UniProtKB/TrEMBL annotation:
Family stated for the protein in its record: Belongs to the ABC transporter superfamily.
Keywords tagged on the record: Amino-acid transport, ATP-binding, Cell membrane, Membrane, Nucleotide-binding, Transport
CDD domains linked: ABC_HisP_GlnQ
Organism: Collinsella stercoris DSM 13279
Membrane topology: Peripheral membrane protein
Alphabetized SMART domains for the sequence: AAA
Listed name of the protein: ABC-type polar-amino-acid transporter
EC number: 7.4.2.1
Alphabetized GO MF terms: ATP binding; ATP hydrolysis activity; ATPase-coupled polar amino acid-transporter activity
Enzyme class: translocase
Compartment(s) where it occurs, according to its Swiss-Prot or TrEMBL record: Cell membrane
Length: 257
């Protein structure tokens, strides 16, 4: 843990950002989905992205992992441009954990196999070592007792926690969460958010797209509000939620109350 004197904002100012977007533009046909997006996420920072449906939040996350290409601008990971393809791209993707709304676990594999696959296949870890580390991670997210089941035998909340463990097994530099609790029954939301709160407290660099405003208030270093493909406003959570300056943000916050 870092000392509590140095804030994450201080660290962000000092060091090369883990993730940086410079003047990123993206169209889908005639639709301008990312408009001159500039975003810098420092080591250990937690940035929560909110905004109406269709505002480009998922496209932003997917662009960072190069699941989507961009038309212009730059995306840098620790100061390095995103590789275009091949082994370099695969290696970079492994360094950015991504957790989606749908859990995306491999249905025919056990929970343990889901978590060991990347480390054995991509990182080349021996099986025993990968399994030991996987069990630690499953323990950490509270599903170790489910290790030998298949995903369909688990609740949605448990599956999403496995998906987080699976990402962590790759030792990511940062984690991207795209509405990780939106597909969950209400009683399962907190068990997933609690895992994310722990991760944040342990210093993980995170971008989180979510509609969970309590989570944003508690955990975010910065809230970024997107509308129509642009970052309209950003700020510290209390400042943003209590005194939004743009009308778009005020309307959005009123609409979700
Ligand atoms: P959000 O995650 O904020 O709801 P998205 O990034 O998913 O927004 O989408 C932004 C806009 O881009 C929406 O209008 C959506 O319909 C459109 N869009 C997303 N993906 C595609 C795609 N693959 N092809 C065409 N349009 C897309
Ligand atoms: Mg989305």
């Amino acid at each position: 843990m870092t000392s509590n004197v140095e804030t994450s904002a201080d660290r962000a100012a000092q060091a090369t950002p883990i993730i940086e977007l410079r003047h990123v533009d993206k169209h889908f046909g005639d639709l301008h989905v990312l408009k001159d997006v500039n975003l810098s996420v420092g080591k250990g920072e937690v940035v929560v992205v909110i905004g109406p449906s269709g505002s480009g939040k998922s496209t932003l996350c997917r662009a960072i992992n190069r699941l989507e290409t961009i038309d212009s601008g730059e995306i840098l990971i620790e100061g390095q441009p995103l590789p275009q393809e091949g082994k370099e791209l695969a290696a970079m993707r492994a360094e950015l954990g991504m957790v989606f709304q749908s859990f995306n676990l491999f249905a025919h594999m056990s929970i343990l196999q889901n978590v060991t696959l990347g480390p054995t296949e991509v990182l080349g870890l021996p099986k025993a070592e990968a399994e030991a580390r996987a069990m630690e991670l499953l323990e950490r997210v509270g599903v170790a007792s489910q290790a030998h089941k298949v995903p369909a035998q688990l609740s949605g909340g448990q599956q999403q926690r496995v998906a987080i463990a699976r990402s962590l097994a790759m030792h990511p530099k940062a984690m991207l969460f795209d509405e990780p609790t939106s597909a969950l029954d209400p009683e399962m939301i907190n068990e997933v958010l609690d895992v994310m709160v722990d991760l944040a407290r342990q210093g993980m660099t995170m971008i989180v797209v979510t509609h969970e405003m309590n989570f944003a208030r508690r955990v975010a270093d910065r809230v970024v509000f997107m509308a129509d493909g642009a970052i309209v406003e950003e700020g510290a959570p209390d400042e943003f939620f209590d005194h939004p300056t743009s009308e778009r943000a005020r309307d959005f916050l009123n609409s979700i109350k």
